[in-house]
Amino acid sequence: MNPFLQVAVEAALEAGATLREEFDRPKKILYKGEVDLVTESDHRSEKTIVARLRSHFPDHAIVAEEGSSGAAAGARYCWHIDPLDGTTNFAHGYPCFAVSMALADAGQPVVGVVFNPVSQELFTAVRGEGAYLNGKRISVSPVEKLAHSLVATGFPTHRRKRSANINYYWEFTLRSHGVRRDGSAALDLASVACGRFDGFWEFGLNSWDTAAGVLLIEEAGGRVTGLSGEPYQLGGPDILTSNGRIHEEMRQLAAQVAENAARS
Fold first, then answer.
1. Which domain range does residue 153 map to?
2. Domain of 194: which CATH number?
3. Of 84, 107, 137, the domain-final residue
4. What's the pLDDT score for residue 264?
5. What does the pLDDT read at residue 158?
6. What is the C-alpha separation between 98 and 81, in angstroms, rounded?
7. Could you write out the DSSP letters of every residue in the chain?
């Protein structure tokens, strides 16, 4: 196994075991904003991951959601970590959350891991070596038309009243088999990679939300861009992913929604 992937898998499984153990317990919920939750489990999971990465790769930079780690100046490699993607789900007892980890080389994800500790599904990818679910190779769906697709999105926990995504949600709902909103971008992206969803879009995601999932989709044969079709950069303002076959149709619909919004 790739040595970077091996350490990432070990860290994700260890952190995931902690999350699974604490999932059924009463949770102490804190707020980073009016509605943006964080739990003690977020911090414990991140501490576990960072400690393991630091012990193996002390020269690597680490960017983590809860900010418990620093970045090594001038480092070639950078880890992007979400120790608990889907905190709101976790806090409410909804079993849709994951540990998401990715290693980027000069800004490009080269190793990715997404682990769902409830379903015990471990998604892994290494650049140029394919994407896998519990050791079995996965690929994106064969769906050719948006009208025959199932897609997903998410909504921000902050500035919700100013989010234009409800307009996109409406149009994509009308033109597909449906739109799912499960509250974990990492799992949504992994679901595109394994063909459960045919596409996914969202606004305002951070690098730790998308880095692992982007690599999974690309290695599974899918496509990742911004909503306008431009190359996606980690932490970019928006993201559009698909099985590749419906990508242009999704992009055109997104452009139409944006144009209509500008007119109104």
1. 146-263
2. 3.40.190.80
3. 137
4. 72
5. 61
6. 11
7. --HHHHHHHHHHHHHHHHHHHHHTS---EEESSSS-EEEHHHHHHHHHHHHHHHHH-TTSEEEETT--S---TT-SEEEEEEEEETHHHHHTT-S--EEEEEEEETTEEEEEEEEETTTTEEEEEETTS-EEETTEE--------GGG-EEEE---SSSGGG--HHHHHHHHHHTSSEEE--S-HHHHHHHHHTTS-SEEEEES--HHHHHHHHHHHHHTT-EEE-TTSPBP-TT-SEEEEE-SSSHHHHHHHHHHHHHHHHH-
126-181 tens-digit pLDDT: 999 999 999 999 999 999 999 999 999 999 766 656 667 999 999 999 999 999 99
- 75 lies in the same domain as 158: no
> Is residue 24 scored above 60 in pLDDT?
yes
- Whether pLDDT at 34 is above 70: no
Q: What is the pLDDT of residue 160?
A: 56
Split into its structural domains, the chain has a count of: 2
What span, in angstroms and rounded, lies between the C-alpha atoms of 233 and 219? 17
Average pLDDT for 55-70 = 83
